[in-house]
Every structure is written in C-alpha cells, then in structure tokens.
C-alpha cells in the first residue's frame, strides 16, 4: 500500500528532478504549517511528511487555502465550496443508503444541500462495493455512517441526521422523517418500502422521488410524487411498471425472474457487464429532479429546465435500445423510435382504484 511518504517522494521526483536544488513546499505536521525547504528534505519522520502541490498563494503573503467559514461556504467566489446557496436551507431525506442512495447523497452534497436525513438499517458488505460510493475500508460499517462521512468530506458544515431503522417496521419514525424534509428520495430496492413511503407522502403532502434500476440494467425509471397528483400507488395502477433489477441470484430465484431450475452458469449470464454504470442516469435524474422541486427555479435560472420537465411525473432512461421504450414520449427531443441514452417521459394520472390515495380520499371526505 502506498504511504504518504511514497506520495511525497513521487511528487518530489516529478517536481524537481534528480540533482535539482529547487525548493518545495511541504506540510510539517509538527508545527502544523506549510514550510519551504530544499527539495528532498524530510520533515518529521515517516508518514508525517506530505507535500502540498496545490497550495495557492504560498510565498506571496497569503495564508494557505483554508476551509471556508460557514457564512462563506455557499459562495464559491468568496472562497467557499459551493457555487450557489440555492440548496443551503433545504433538507432532503434519503431512504436507503445503498448503491443508489449513497450516490444521490453524494451528489446532493456536491450541489450544496444544507441538511440530509439518512435512513438505512443495513451494514456495508463486499457485494455492495461495485455499486456504492464506499469501498473496502468501509466493510462492516453502517451505511448511514459511511454516507455521513462522505458528505461531510464534501461539506464540513452539512447537517446530518441518521436513522438506523427499517421504515417498514417503524411507520411513526417514517412520519417524523417525512415531516422534517423538503423532499424525500426513496432509494430502497423493494416495493414494500416504496409503498410505505408513497403512502406517507400522500398523507403528509410532501414531494418525493422513487428510483429503480430495471431488470438487467436495461434502463432506469423514476417517479415523482407531487402533492395532490398521482401517487406511487397510482403508478402501479397504470400498468406501466417494468421489472426491476435483481439484487442477486437469491433474490432473482425468489422473485421468479430466474427460474428455479437455472444452473449457476445461467445465473451468471443474467448479469450483464457494466451494471454499475447503468445506475448513473438514475442518480442524475433523481438529484436534478429533486432540486427542481425545492429550489426557486426562476430565482436560480432553472426556469427553462423546469419547463422542459413540464408536468411529467414518470421518466424512463433507455440504457439499451429496447423496443419497449417506444410507448413513451421524449423530453423535448426529436425522433420517434426508441434510442439509447435518452430520457422518456410520461404523465401518470390518478388511478380511481389506487390503494393509497383513494383510501386517503375516502378518509378525509
Ligand atoms: Zn394514488
């Protein structure tokens, strides 16, 4: 494994070449400052030495680039991390911190969200690595703790609240979570939890997004619940739902997507190379669509984007050129046939037989 010393040596060689008498800037852990030393000088011992190739302003009387203060953090031009304060006072709740939820959390943090509520009861396992933002060093940790570290590493001032619970077993906790968020992102991998979230959103009148990777990664779908509009239950009633990605061979066998008689070789073929990439369009659409629900689109120059999304509440992205995408229209793009790399949009209408919102309707009338 590379140590900090290896890194310092590499940088030194690149920076000065052998035999050079050039100076270099290094971080001295003993004094806690950047110091200028002759190339090749070792400060402290062993891994205490690290060079700092990207310190701005050193030697010109300026302080090395420090972390911004909180009041400057959402102003990139004043030395902050984020380009805009549009999401500074917003709260997003992410239900499920697995492959999808962790990437959505990271992207919302990079967009400058001020507060995240992270919900997951699971710990991180080896089979999660290929689709998750975390890696080997996080094995065995709670997924909520991992995601907190990741977003704090991007924004030291982000507020994080964690719930290590299964929302299906704790409806009252889900109600609290939904109440404190401006937007809820359902990033779980099963329908029972999605219906729980969908039902709570309808009851609470909060917007939310539901994302899935479709079977064998051939596409993704994302449903937006706008308060008063069609709910997640209505989406099922519209009969447009396609089968989602199978989590693993066991889940595939249980759901019937993999026949019980399939050999181990057959099961391997059912997973296509590139599945980690197939999730990325969903990460994008969930982050972007969430932002459009909670940001003042006019004030922050997103009016055109918001208009392009229109009253769409269901989006498919075709990762594959499958004929089944033909029935969807596209988002302000020319062409009639299905295509890869394109979003397909639909407006789902309320279902009079919806098991979620029509029950609410009856209860409140
Ligand atoms: Zn409904």
Describe this structure in words.
With 365 residues, the chain is of the alpha/beta class. The chain has two domains: 4-51, no CATH class; 91-346, NAD(P)-binding Rossmann-like Domain (Rossmann fold, 3-Layer(aba) Sandwich), CATH 3.40.50. It is built from twelve helices and twelve strands. The protein has a nine-stranded mixed sheet with strand order 6-5-4-7-8-9-10-12-11, with helices on both faces. It has a three-stranded antiparallel sheet with strand order 2-1-3, covered by helices on one side. Strand 7 (183-186), helix 5 (191-204) and strand 8 (208-213) form a beta-alpha-beta unit. Helix 2 (99-110) packs parallel to helix 3 (143-154), helix 2 packs across helix 10 (280-294) and helix 4 (171-180) crosses helix 5 (191-204). The structure holds zinc ion.
